[in-house]
Known about the structure:
The protein is of the alpha/beta class and 272 residues long.
Amino acid sequence: MSHIPEPVxxxxxxxxxxxxxxxxxxxxxxxxxxxxxxxxxxxGLVGPREAPRLWERHLVNCAVMESLLPTxxxxxxxxxxxxxxxxxxxxxxxxxxxxxxxxLLRRTVWLRSxxxxxxxxxxxxxxxRAEDSCLTAPFVTARAVASLDKLIxxxxxxxxxxxxxxxxxxxxxxxELAAAQKLLRxxxxxxxxxxxxxxxxxxxxVRVVDIEVPRGHHPRDARQKGAGGRQGAGGHVETDGIxxxxxxxxxxxxxxxSQSRDKAAKMRSKSS
Length: 272
């Protein structure tokens, strides 16, 4: 039987690289790390084995991608989970405006309580799936959400013209980017590259796939062309107002309406 570590009361002390990256925001980052190590684990957002390596593997890993975002940028973080990278970016960069999109209720409840505890006014939480969202922004981030081809389909409808998908990836990043070339050509993408950042500031390099949507791209067109990907089973999702009408739900409504009209027509026919 594998050993599951005992619950911890707080995160490990921040390493030197965290002090360099977060600067005067380190105290706030430490409070967030403690929340991840305690309620984040008890709520199932972070695995108990992650507690000893929260800084190196999660917070520092996410924070270095702030260098890819211009001042005052609006960012949509999809599949936010425990707020990685969205909350980390909000801590490191208070100038950013960030929307977290997460489908699971227990996670959105935790995210909202964490944001309130950390007093981060420039970040909002939306319950829903990325492919159902009506939000748009110049930047979309994702970490450990899905394969790159799925991310492209889900995020392109969220991106403004010349916007960027910034996908944090592991060692297979180059292979995923190569496998997505056919889809990228189909969507008219001219610039997609693997960026390795943080070599001079972190112990492990951070790989970010940076994909720029074409200048003529329009989010509405991407949705109409089906770039948003598959529809989920059941045809329903609660989204706090950001979801679109689901195709299957609409089909059921149309079918019910048609059946009602047919029944009414038969009744009129019998009465006449």
